[in-house]
């Protein structure tokens, strides 16, 4: 069952608070524990009204600080300093903590105080996509006609869908038009699968309470503290004679008058008690004046005390500020909260909406969530990884970052004094508890290691002296650390060839049971999803048997790293039975072997790349296939095709290629490209740590 939904809007003052309150009420009826999360709030100096209202009214067992991540100013500052990735990481981490504790998380996008910011709209869209959750789109009705409204909704819907957001419902809020006509027009021109609802404009919710007036004016409350939740529907100014003033009193108005006009104050209080005049919401006394003491005593002794506020500003300035108040729904105002929920429930088919939210299923894992999950798993495992190439600055820089992030423990191979000197020259953070430096030749385990190598390889003609010589090689020493259990995995190749990294592993770590092929996969972090490419780095021209092993290993790797349902496409230049030839037959044979050895794996082949990843093409070329159009594990027929494809996709789309990760070995040994960046090394160590955890 889907466990979250994101409320998103492209406009300011959209009325999405009503949607949030109504949704929370709906969700709590069927879900025991529902959390509320608003990634970005206006200001940290004052509590966010809406968070406070939701948490308190629905008695949600979470702290206020858990319900948000950043203020708007913090977001903009971090963005301006190029640290937007940090923003995503922190938001995702906070969200995931709530997801672990609660059955459902209701997420509300940020508000806009000024004209809609393109960045903030895109940011909220990106967050919804990154969190991999369905969204409800809220559009405010400020259009002259139903046609204009519908056209705007269509435009916004298209825009958000183009950003890869799964929109499951559209709410038009603050609607001033005929609700049935607007709803009919929208349903006729929007996709049938969407939930469509019209929330009528509420005059009651669009007026401030006396508390909001007091807060805006920073007023001193003289009387009526217990009645500040009274709604002020309009305001009147008292400046004329009493007889003329009394005729202007309207239902639930707030009367603004100079504090020294005792006649108007007393007249307002008497009118409020009389059945001949409408009820007054409150008084605001201006100019820094107060009525005479006798009048104050009269006010204090009245049984019908009004909220009476005192301010230092002038009458007209005060009235103007009251007129410009943007009303909010705040904690403790049960009347407005209940009214908002009632409006939602009378306008929205909650049964259909609940069913729609719960029915959303997604097997796609987003790149940001994928990276977040990697770090969480690696930190949890706290594995020990050996890095043999201390002579490379990139290795030391990556080790520094890994230690600082507390990903696990590291052994760097090299002469300690030389490594420490280089660390100092580079100005790197260094943690001696997390990073140990070992010189293979002078280590306490050197003799044990080369003796072990000799015993393992003597049947192949290796002599003891040759084993001792080989064990001075950092690749052999690091691999032996993994073999003996002194390290959980090894990452090498930044300064050495693939053959140099893999050869020791093939000699004594060997392949895992039932496999004869060591292969590799890249995790391709595309803009909207993560897919696996195999093999793009190791086996030049695999046989059908090897290709089948690559496919099986890759499917297992996909599950290890969070893709619950691997869908394997065995790629070729033809799909299904449309093509013939030696290469096509190899792929067809490999597909049959996978199906025979692992009937639990969803696999299709031969299949072309477009049919594998494009739903429309997939349905056209291979109707009824469980893989076509939705493949997430792509197996290339040879190294030439795979290597060129991954590099082309990486360069042309800006995708991040994480890997290669070796698979098929008994213990995790991973090879780096000699052009690897610090980020590549960091990610490969993280992957290696997770591999060892799952072993």
TrEMBL record:
Instruction: Please write the reaction equations for the catalytic activity of this protein.
Output: acetyl-CoA + phosphate = acetyl phosphate + CoA
Q: Describe which pathway this protein belongs to, using the record's wording.
A: Metabolic intermediate biosynthesis; acetyl-CoA biosynthesis; acetyl-CoA from acetate: step 2/2
Q: Which residues form the DRTGG domain?
A: 212-323
What EC number(s) does this enzyme carry? 2.3.1.8
For this record, the Gene Ontology CC terms, alphabetical, are:
cytoplasm
- Respond yes or no to whether keyword S-adenosyl-L-methionine is given for this record: no
Which keywords annotate this record? Acyltransferase, Cytoplasm, Transferase
Q: What GO terms describe the biological role, i.e. biological process, of this protein?
A: acetyl-CoA biosynthetic process
Subcellular location per the Swiss-Prot or TrEMBL entry = Cytoplasm
Domain annotation Phosphate acetyl/butaryl transferase: ranges: 370-689
One family name in Pfam for this protein: AAA_26
| Superkingdom of source | Bacteria
Anything noted about its domains?
The N-terminal region seems to be important for proper quaternary structure. The C-terminal region contains the substrate-binding site.
Q: How does it assemble?
A: Homohexamer.
Q: Which family is it part of?
A: In the C-terminal section; belongs to the phosphate acetyltransferase and butyryltransferase family.
Its name, as the record gives it, is Phosphate acetyltransferase
Give the source lineage, highest ranks first.
Bacteria, Pseudomonadati, Bacteroidota, Chitinophagia, Chitinophagales
